[in-house]
Amino acid sequence: MFYYLFEYLDKAYDLPGAGVFHYLSFRAAMAVFFSLLISMIFGKSLINKLRSLQVGETVRDLGLKGQVEKQGTPTMGGIIILAAILIPTLLFAKLDNIYIILMLISTVWLGAIGFIDDYIKVFRKNKEGLAGKFKIVGQVGLGLIIGITMYMSDDMVIREKLDQDEINKNLVEQQITGDNCKKSSNDIFKQESEKSFKTTIPFVKHNQFNYSWLLKWMGDGYEKYTWLIFIPMVILIITAVSNGANLTDGLDGLATSTSAVIGATLGLLAWVSGNFIFADYLNIMYIPNAGELAIFISAFVGATIGFLWYNSYPAQVFMGDTGSLALGGIIAVFAIIIRKELLIPLVAGVFLVENLSVIMQVTYFKFTKKKYGEGRRIFLMSPLHHHFQKKGYHEAKIVQRFFIVAIMLAVLTIVTLKLR
Length: 420
What we know:
With 420 residues, the chain is mainly α. The protein is 62% helix and 1% strand. It has one domain. It has 16 helices and 2 strands. Strands 1-2 form a two-stranded antiparallel ribbon.
C-alpha cells in the first residue's frame, strides 16, 4: 500500500524522499523492521490475551524431561507470525505482483487450516484436533491452486539467456551506435518471456531440469501433458514440507529458528533470480518480477526471528499448528514459484530428516511386529529431536545444534549456484 501511496506523491507532488519506495532494498529492510516490531509488540498483547482465555497447551506425557513444566503454556501463537508476515507485506509490496498474491494466499490458507486444528484442540477439548484427512485435503487444495496458476498464468514466466555470440553482437551494436548505456536485460536474455516447466537442479551443468523431459517417450506434443507430472509434484512438495515443519515444532524455538535460516536462504535465491545482473553473473535462470518476493520473505524472516523473542527456551508461547503448518507451506510454495523446489531436500534438510525419522520408525515398528510379533524401534523416540532428548541432551542444546546444521545446509544450498 505504501508503495502506491508514495509513488503517487512522488509523481503528483514531487515529494522529497518519496522515490525511496521504488528501491527493493529499502522496502525489504522496512518489511524486516516492521515484522520484528509487530512480533514483539503484538506478541506480548496476544500472549496476555491467550492466558486470560486459558488457551493453554495440553501436553501428552511422553516421559521427556521438562515436559510437565510446559503444561498450560499459551498456544496458537502462530497468529503472531501470520500477522507479522501479512501486515508488512501488505504495506510494502506491490500487491499486483502474481508472486506476492500467491504467497499471501498460501499464508492465509495454511494459517486458517492450522488455526482450525488448534481451535478444536483448545476450545473443543479434542486432543486429536482437525482430522488428518482434512489437513491433507487443505494442503492438496493449495497445491492445486499453485500448480494450476503456474501452468496457466502468463505472468509466471522465465527468460532464457542468449548464447554468447548473440550477447557479443548486442554489445558491438551498442558500440557502433555510440550507446554507452549500462548493459540491460535485453542484451543478455531473450526479449520474449516464455512459459516453461524448467526448474533448478543442483550439481548439474546448466543447472536446469524440465519436467516435460520425463514425457519424451510419448512422442510429438508431449509438452502439453507436462501438467500431469508438475501439479502432483507441487502437491507432494507442499504437503511434505508443511508436515515436516509441523513435526519439527516439538522443542522451544526449533521450528522457528530453522525456518528463519531457510527463509533467508530462499530470499537470497529469489533476489538473484529476479535480478538479471546477478542471474547473468551466476548463469542461472532469470525470473522477471520475482525480485518482489524479497519483500515477503524479509517479513517472513523478521516474523520468525521476532517470534523467538517469546518462543526461545523456556517458551512463553507455542506457535501451534497455526504457525507450523503455515511456515512449512510458505517455504514449499516460495521454493516452487522461484523454481528452486529441487533444492528443498538440502535447504530444508532438517524438516526432511524429521519427516524421515518418523516414517522409518513407524515402518520398521510395523515390519518387526509382523515378522517377530513384537515391534522394534530404530530411534528411542521420533521425531528425531525427541531421540536426542531421550539420550539426555538438554532441549536448548538440541535446538542450538539443529540451528547450526540448518546454517550449514543453507551455505551448501547457496554454493550450488556455482558448484555444477
